Amino acid sequence: MAIYLTQESKVLVQGMTGGEGMKHTRRMLAAGTNVVGGVNPRKAGRTVGFDVPQSPNGLGGAPTAVPVFGSVAEGIAATGADVSVVFVPPAFVRAAVTEAADAGIGLAVVITEGVPVHDSVSFTAYAKARGTRIVGPNCPGLITPGQSNAGIIPADITKPGRIGLVSKSGTLTYQLMYELRDIGFSTCVGIGGDPVVGTSHIDCLAAFEDDPDTELIVLIGEIGGDAEERAAAFIRDHVSKPVVGYIAGFTAPEGKTMGHAGAIVSGSSGTARAKKEALEAVGVRVGRTPTETARLALAVLDGEA
Length: 305
Fold this sequence. Notes:
Blueprint: E1 10-14, H1 19-30, E2 34-39, E3 47-50, E4 64-69, H2 72-79, E5 83-86, H3 90-103, E6 107-110, H4 117-129, E7 133-135, E8 141-144, E9 148-151, E10 160-167, H5 170-179, E11 185-190, H6 201-210, E12 216-222, H7 227-238, E13 243-248, H8 272-280, E14 285-287, H9 290-301
Parallel strand pairs: 1-2, 1-5, 2-4, 5-6, 6-7, 10-11, 10-12, 12-13, 13-14
Antiparallel strand pairs: 3-4, 8-9, 8-11
Helix pairs in contact: 3-4, 5-9, 6-7, 7-8
C-alpha cells in the first residue's frame, strides 16, 4: 500500500524539456516511475529519448522514449495520466497548475522554489475546488519506494517498508530516509516549507492513519507558523498509530525570519521548543537531532519506547 502515489500512477512532466526537467525525468524513470509524457506547447509532437530503462532497479530493457504534448489535457487524453510533476520557472507555476487542474489531473507535484505567495494562495485554492491535490510548491515531491517517484527525492537511499514520512524539509526528508533505510518506507512526502502549501502535515497524517501497511509515522517540522501545533491537535483526536517527530531550528534566534520556514519567530510562538512541547503533550516522541529521531523510531518499532 501507499498514499497518493503507486506503481499504477501515470506521470506527466510539465517542463520536461528544460534542464531540471530532463535531469529529474531521467531519475524518475530509473526509479521505475511510469512517466507517460512531457508538456511543452513549443515542442509538441516530439519524442525525447532517455538513456535509461524504465524499471525499478534501472537495469534491463530498452531506453525509454517519452512523447511531448502541447498541453496537459492532450497528455491526459493520450495516456490517461493522473499525476503531473511541475518543473517550470516561478513566474509560470500558477498557469501550469491552473492548466493541470482544468484538465482534471488528480495530483500536481510542484517542485519549483521561489513561487510568489499570492500565486500559491491562488492556485492551491483553484486546484482544491477542482479536486486536484497539490504537493508543494518548493518541495522535493514524494516517493513510494519500489513503486514510483514523483519529484527529486533520491530513490536509492531507502527501500519499501513500514514507515510513513511527512516533512517540510527536503534535506531532512533524505536524511531520515537514509537513517531508517533498514526498515524502509511506505511513502515519503515532502510537503514543502513555504508559507502556503497544497498538502499539509494533517492531510498526510490522515492518509497514513488509513494506510494498513504504515505502522509508524515520522513527522518533520520547522520553526515558524503553527502547522505542527495544528498537527498535534489532529494526532490527539484522530491518529492511533505511533508518531515520532523532529523540529528543525532549536538553535535559531528569535525575532528573525528563518529562510524558507517562512515565518517570524516571536516570543515562544513558532519556536522549536513550543512545537516540541505541543507534540509531546499528545504522545509524540520528539528527537533533538535527526539521528536521535531515527533511534526513537526504531525503538518504537521494536517495542522499546
